[in-house]
Design brief:
mainly alpha, 130 residues, 3-stranded parallel β-sheet
Length: 130
């Protein structure tokens, strides 16, 4: 079975997500950027506020880039540790809608991205997270 991948969205003229996805590994793609159901509600502007939310939730804020922090917050939100951002998609929803598909976001390849969290949940239903 082909392993789903994370793709980067583009505003370049002629960019076609499905064509790019099929050319990458033959799989179709789902856009998981904001404002989709699977978009990360955490923005760069939220960084300072999220430090406070993490403290209130008893979670230690991470050092590093805002992207790392945003992905950590997304993972905690999906896991039910943060209520302030509304109801996250469930693991069942993620698996039903995203399993076996490439996931596309605006994050640069190699940068931290919430799509990696979604890829894991969608395609490793019975395994523990690393």
């Amino acid at each position: 079975m082909t392993k789903p991948a994370r793709l980067q969205l583009s505003r370049a003229k002629g960019f076609n997500l499905q064509q790019t996805s099929k050319a990458t590994n033959g799989l179709s793609a789902v856009n998981v950027a904001r404002p989709s159901r699977f978009g990360n509600p955490v923005t760069k502007q939220d960084f300072v506020d999220l430090q406070e939310i993490f403290a209130e939730a008893g979670l230690k804020p991470i050092e590093g880039t805002w992207q790392e922090h945003a992905v950590r917050c997304f993972d905690a939100w999906i896991g039910g540790d943060i209520d302030e951002m509304g109801a996250p998609p469930t693991a069942d929803e993620i698996q039903r809608d995203l399993q076996g598909k490439n996931l596309a976001c605006w994050c640069k390849p190699g940068d931290p991205c919430h799509a990696d969290v979604l890829l894991f949940i969608a395609n490793h239903s019975s395994e523990a997270k690393p």
